[in-house]
Amino acid sequence: MAPSAVPLDVFSHVEEDSHYRVKRIKLSSSKISISEAPGDDPVAIPSHPLGIKPSGNAYTASEDIKSACGLFSRLPDELLNYLLERLDAFDLVTLGATCKALYAFTTTEELWKNLFIALPPKSFTWYGTWRSTYLKLPHTSEFRISCRNLYSDVLYRPFHCAHMPLKPYTTNIPPKNLIPRFSDLTHEEFSTKWTDTPFILTSPVKEWPIYENWTPKTLLSKYADVKFRAEAVDWPLKTYMDYMKNNNDESPLYLFDQNFVEKTNISVGKDTKDAVYWPPTCFGEDFFSVLGDQRPDCRWMIMGPERSGSTFHKDPNATSAWNAVLTGTKYWLLFPSHPTLPLPPGVIISHDQSEITSPLSIAEYLLSFHSIARLTPGCREAICYAGEVLHVPSGWFHLVLNLSESLALTQNFVPRQRLADVLEFLRDQKNQVSGFAENVTDAFGLFVARLKESCPEVLEEVFGELERRGRKVGKQKSRGKWEELTRANEPRQDDIGFSFGFGNEDDEEVP
Ligand SMILES: O=C(O)CCC(=O)C(=O)O
Ligand SMILES: [Fe+2]
């Protein structure tokens, strides 16, 4: 599931010759012919509604209205913006009334979105912008001041990112990056060849009763007043859809609801009476199902406008996933994660591998890193259309961008061939385990116990696999870099005699 989580941090990262905004989030969170150069089409981006221009224009300008801001004019734009993030609505409006440049700095959408999310009004009408919604100003009563001689990347960049054309980045995919498409696969084909490879299936979703019956419009007609989760807010569907149809956000709020089955009262699953969808059969048995109602969150309904999507992340608990598009179109960019392969360009992983720092928005990523991403070994890309489902293998980084308004369903699962990865993750990356109920304090122990009850022979095989992996790591590194990086404070597997006994609990020695 995507990192719809609130960013841990948002800040500007300056490299020698580039300047892009970044954010830091949990790495796996419980849940987006170039004949023209990307972003080169000036006519496709409208002028800024206040007339603000990028900073570079200041060099040839005769006037810069920021100089009329008194002491504020001495602050770099980033610092000024940082200070404004600490003000409340009254202070922002008051300060914004003092001069044109401060009007521009105090009316940015990000400031008002943060105020709104921090203290959401009980009831409200979406008026097209966060500021007008927060201040209850229908667009018609909002006035705009021209700030024509203001030159600021801090103010202009979000506007550029919210309006730049996406096509130059998502078309002309190099053939070597293209994700393969099949009508369908058998379980045998999936499990022998495809569990570590992204692919698209074009048939299974078209057989679901839900396909073509569930669209944003039909959902609205039935569930207008039902609240769905969109990142940090729970809004009635009709409010979310007003927002979806009318916003100019650089990273539009994304509806990501894990309780949609209960909220819409549908039946799901292959052997369920009147089921409206089921996992494509090629994925076979899902080993997390041995956990019954103790399994971690596993399915989500996802809806969002053009430009919404998911920034780079890995899915939780080293699970695999399928993502089925019911309406709209999604652009996918994926990278495998392996010690011998490079990380996706522009992505930085924390020392303990729990946090990921990457460009602040999908558009920011496309502007700064897409061209190099395409040339990076391991890069895979595709456009997934309505009626298609994409397989995200366990551990792969992925970024997803909606190219039009879209509705999708996704489910995380554990196929037999990736069971060892999931067990290893639950055992070794305990601080990153997510999606389990709060009373589950030892997800690894719980999963092992349930597997032992349901399929002891599978568990024995998987522990064999883990033991071989442990030995290999031990041999290759003999307390080398990889172990230092991943198991800083833990004893090595071979030091503690990793073993798993069947029948006699005293034998059981699980780290
Ligand atoms: O459709 C999307 O935005 C991708 C969702 C995703 O990656 C996830 O659920 O983990
Ligand atoms: Fe994901």
TrEMBL record:
A Pfam family reported for this protein in Swiss-Prot or TrEMBL: F-box-like
Lineage: Eukaryota, Fungi, Dikarya, Ascomycota, Pezizomycotina
Residue span(s) of domain JmjC: 268-430
PANTHER family, sorted: ARGININE DEMETHYLASE AND LYSYL-HYDROXYLASE JMJD (PTHR12480), JMJC DOMAIN-CONTAINING PROTEIN 8 (PTHR12480:SF21)
Gene3D superfamilies on file: 1.20.1280.50, Cupin
Sequence ranges assigned to domain F-box in this UniProt record: 69-115
Domain of life: Eukaryota
Region called Disordered, residue ranges: 472-511
Parts forming coiled coils: none
Name recorded for this polypeptide: F-box domain-containing protein
GO molecular function, one term: cis-regulatory region sequence-specific DNA binding
Species the sequence originates in: Glonium stellatum
Bias (Basic and acidic residues): 480-495
GO cellular component: nucleus
